[in-house]
Design a protein that fits this description.
Elements (H helix, E strand, L loop, with lengths): L1 E2 L6 E7 L2 E6 L2 E6 L19 E5 L5 E5 L8 E5 L2 E5 L14 H14 L4 E5 L5 H8 L3 E6 L2 H13 L7 E5 L2 H11 L5 E4 L4 E3 L5 E3 H13 L8 E6 L6 H16 L2 E10 L6 E11 L1
Parallel strand pairs: 1-16, 4-5, 9-10, 9-12, 10-11, 12-15
Antiparallel strand pairs: 2-3, 3-4, 5-6, 7-8, 13-14, 15-17, 16-17
């Protein structure tokens, strides 16, 4: 498992009863997590100190129960030189997936070691964790997401990280339609990062279901890779899509034409109270 264990301003304190107990900067949050299937094993005495708790609704969705009024606005956390605006949002989110730090580290190292200009296409780019990581390593980045609000947060995160003037292009669009246009335009990228949702809708109602769409989408992405590509990263939070299946997909859709090698694994976060690791999804990486 690839473990995101270098955080200072984020901490996964404990897990129990379908919840994570986390520290985000100075605030303590309780958020539901379907991977936490164990019950009555709370090892930390900090559960009662939570500043905010997200409660699921029986009818779907849910809402935050805010105990600390200071949490009504956004606050900042950092991962090395990277800084992120964090706030409690709908569907239990905060704007950052901390386990993705393992991919930020790998992408930054790979870009720096390339010793040449690298163009990155970040698809389903959300609030820009991978975008600012790659930009901080010296790459130019095209950041694409269907949500105008999330792209605005990505710009804010770049500014917080001192990357306002970095070569980042922000696009609000359906990712598949954008890639199709890039193919027609003849635009190419040395690296592609994909963090697709399990389900989703584009800005004009386009439906996305990961298991149904990811194969054909990877075929599109292969067509915008440069003649000297560096890497492709594919993330998944769909529990039925195992790392080995993702490796198989990348091998078929990218490796078959481009050579190189594919590696994959679960990604996770260390749990302070138990010394164990919580699985948080999977990643497959193709590298030339």
């Amino acid at each position: 498992m690839w473990i995101a264990d270098k955080w200072k301003s984020y901490e996964l304190i404990d897990t129990s009863d379908s919840f994570r107990l986390e520290r985000w900067g100075k605030f303590i949050l309780q958020r539901p997590d379907p991977q936490v299937i164990w019950k009555d094993v709370k090892s930390s005495n900090m559960w009662k100190r939570a500043d905010g708790i997200y409660h699921r609704s029986k009818s779907g969705g849910g809402a935050w129960d805010i105990k600390n009024r200071e949490m009504n606005g956004a606050w900042t956390i950092d991962y090395g030189a990277l800084k992120f605006s964090v706030k409690v949002m709908g569907f239990k989110h905060t704007g950052v997936f901390p386990e993705q730090a393992v991919n930020w580290e790998w992408a930054m190292d790979t870009i720096r070691n390339a010793n040449r200009p690298i163009k990155v296409l970040n698809l389903f780019a959300y609030t820009g964790g991978a975008t600012i990581a790659c930009a901080s390593a010296g790459a130019s980045v095209c950041h694409v997401d269907a949500s105008k609000g999330m792209v605005a947060v990505a710009k804010e995160n770049a500014a917080l990280s001192g990357l306002s003037d970095a070569p980042i292009r922000y696009i609000v669009d359906d990712c598949a339609k954008f890639v199709e246009r890039e193919i027609r335009r003849g635009n190419k990228y040395d690296a592609i990062i994909l963090d697709p949702p399990s389900y989703g809708r584009g800005p004009t109602g386009e439906m996305w279901k990961l298991e149904d769409n990811i194969g054909s989408f990877l075929e599109l992405c292969e067509k915008v890779l440069s003649d000297d590509p560096l890497f492709v990263i594919l993330n998944s939070y769909t529990t039925g899509l195992q790392p080995a299946s993702m490796s198989y997909l990348l091998s078929l859709k990218i490796g078959k034409k481009r050579g190189g090698k594919v590696m994959s694994d679960e990604i996770g976060l260390p749990v302070t109270a138990t010394g164990l690791v919580l699985p948080c999804g999977a990643t497959a990486r193709w590298i030339k």
